[in-house]
Amino acid sequence: MAAALVDVLLERLATLALDKVERELKLVVGVKQEIQNLTLKLEAIQAVLEDAEQRQEMQASVKLWLKKLNDVSYDMDDVLDEWITIVLKHQLEKQEKRSAKALVTIKKKVCFPFTSSCFRFGQVNQLFLRHEIAAKIKELNERLGLIDQDKQRFSFQNITVPELHQETTSLPNAKTFGRDEEKKLIVSKLLSEGSEGNEVPLIIPIVGMGGLGKTYLANLVYNDDRVKSHFDTRVWVCVSDPFEETKIARAIIKGLDKNKKTNNSDTLDALLQCIEELIQGKKFLLVLDDVWTPKSSQWEELIKPLRNGAMGSRVLVTTRKEEVVTLMKATTQSIHLKELGEAFCLSLFYHSADMDESSVSKEFKDIGLEIVKRCNGLPLAAKTLGSLMRNKKKIHEWRAVLNSKTWELTEIQQDVFRPLLLSYHDLTPAIKRCLLYCVTFPKDYVYNRNRLIELWMSQDYLNVKESKGKIAVGQNYFEDLAMRSFFQDIEDGIEDEYGNITCKIHDIVHDFLQYLTKNECLILDASERRDVSKDEVHHLTLAHATESDSLKSFLPDYKKLRTFTAIESSYNSIGPIFELITQLKCLRTLILSDPGLREIPKTIGGLIHLRYLDLSRNYGLKELPRALGSLYNLQTLRLVNCIDLKKVDVRRLINLRHLYVRNCGASRSIKGIEKLTDLQRLDEFVVPGGDEGNKLEDLKGLNQLQGSLAIEIGRNPNRAENAAAIMVNKAHLLHLKLVFSEGDDGKIMNGLEPHPSLESLYIHGYGGSAFSHWLSSLHCLRVLTLNYCNCGVLPPLGKLESLESLFIHLHDGVRKVGVEFLGIDDGQTSSSSSIFISFPKLKQLEFMLVSSWEEWVGVENNNITIMPCLSQLTLEYCDYLKALPDFLWKTPLQKLHIRASPILRDLYRQGIGEEWAKISHIPTIKIEGVSE
């Protein structure tokens, strides 16, 4: 942890050496020398930190030394960040004064609600401020000097920090090793209709020590196709420690009621009553994952409403505790997981190392076997160590792992922690900090890759010395952690429509990270009070806050907080304590999504270090204070689903890089967005009709945008005539969604030509007479959706050489789909000798609600190949389509789905349709009417 902090400090000090900041330093006698001394001491300490962090597990004195270094590093970071922020503010004010010289008769008043006198920039106050910070730097220098001297007694070694592995090898595919019999047994218990004494629900515990794969096995069973179809409803709940009936009941309701229409009361009785109503007469499967030690009375309360389910209902429990099985009276149904056999562990080890077990040389095989023996049959340990070896290609690297002193640690909490510690120490300091930050969130939390990277960025964990942008650095860190199996449940790296990837952290890995961070990251239930040193806590997650909680009595004690997150809090629970939150002056990250906030106090402007602010899903929030403009360091602002918020002013947020306003009223009026030329993420931009609000031309200079962007264009949009060429220079934007109001949008669409690197495009409601020419020249486009468009002719999409998925929905006016759609020119349809491939990579094609479509034809030419990769074709509600073209039968089609298309249904009906013989070779065919 300390190593990454020292890296951040050295970067801060390097920033102070820049010309524009150094001019401020010269105004304070001696401070420049103090900063040089700080830099030298930190560089000397940095050289030995890797050795210190590895030795702290065995030497308590080293751990104490690192704690002192951490404390002074945090304080130093705050002081340096404050100084840089003040300089930024001063420079911005100078620029504004220069801009206002022509308007000297107008008195310009800007609100900066900082409580400290250090933010009033009269000459006297500036002088006082400079000397105040200089005094703080001198005091910190003295503290660091004592720590630097103290390090001499430990004789630390200078160990080279490992490099970030940049190999682009793929993640190992999910595979089961040695649990087939257990899976069969559990599935048979779930699918059997009866139970002992007709018990409802039947409780089936999976018991075993941490790291044996209980959750993984339960997940395999939960997602088995036979299990999915057998139960009316399935719910997965992560329980963890402590056993909280109210929290579990809420989670069960959330899983049962996807539409969230049911009771969300805070009282347990009301929640249990809701569960009873939701499962009345239903055959359900409930998984309670990671159950520890509930009291008998707690379990009886929770199980009571579950008895209202239908015969055949099951509760699958994973637990490390045998006493849990006894308490649940389920000893006859329990499955005891044993350690994995050595052969299976070895196979899992090599699979995770991305190595072919049969081709490993004897020298490596002998060492690999010795390493696997130290896994003690724990699959998580074998997987972790295998992942560690993926980038170790030399025999001495394997010997170093085998002979590591980490195996000798005797006070470590669990056996599986030793392999995890080995893998952890193999990370760079910055990646270690990123990993440890993940424990800020509770077990079973679903992490979003993009959001996680922005959170790391808010804590300055990403290495800005890299030539690449911080987002790219964060993506590398994420991939490295995923490669080493610290993350799990990653869907093969598949991104959703917003470019997001989600993952989870194994509960044992979560325990391990808590072991490393101790009290630095604290997850606290609002009703819970823990005896911890408040100054040690830097990241606090508060769960289940209610309006009646006495939060005012303890929250101000956490003065060193850098992250404050409120999760699963009741409506209007945070508003009364917001003023207290704004007194936490060290905050970098503030997440207050969904607690029913109606007002943000102007004192939020005093959080000068704040980088990340999430106010999403505060539906009653109508206005943001002007003081928000004082947050010069703010990098991420999330206002998703703040539907009553009418506008947001970002003119003074000079460091803003990520702005999220999806389904927010403010997406229609983002004042000053055209000034944010370094903005990297913007999820939604609405251009309303008329003269008020956003203009399309506001996007023109935002050429650093990355990921995805949705643009909604109203009828007669504001200043549409200046919309030309606003998207063509956005080379990093990969996903674009264009939503038009009805009307002739041709001129506007012509001006929205994206950069050729675009990968996915969604067009909705386009009403022009023809699609723009640029649509058929997007040669990197992989996914295209045309939804509710009214052009009578489809564009020549067959020319798109990278297109893999094409969806055409609700497309009125099209009567014939022919050679123009295939991208074939008139001269190619006859005797042309030129070779042409139409839709060369298309795999998935879907037509839905193309109501006037009658004819679909191809072309007969041996030099023209059509859709050579097509594997899936879907046609729905194509009422008048007479037949499918013959070229389809030459494609490698694997799935054909025809629904609510009566002519096609009769023509290709199985066995009796006139054209059944043409499609009978396709492996999967589904033809159905409307009711089906």
TrEMBL record:
Pfam family, one: LRR_14
Residues covered by the Disease resistance N-terminal domain: 6-97
Domain called Disease resistance protein winged helix: residue spans: 441-512
Keywords: ATP-binding, Hydrolase, Nucleotide-binding, Plant defense, Repeat
Domain Disease resistance R13L4/SHOC-2-like LRR residues, every copy: 560-876
Entry's Gene Ontology molecular function annotations: ADP binding; ATP binding; hydrolase activity
Chloroplast is among the record's keywords: no
Superkingdom as given in the UniProt entry: Eukaryota
Domain NB-ARC positions: 187-354
Biological processes per GO annotation: defense response; response to other organism
Protein's name in the database: Putative P-loop containing nucleoside triphosphate hydrolase, leucine-rich repeat domain, L
Protein's organism: Rosa chinensis
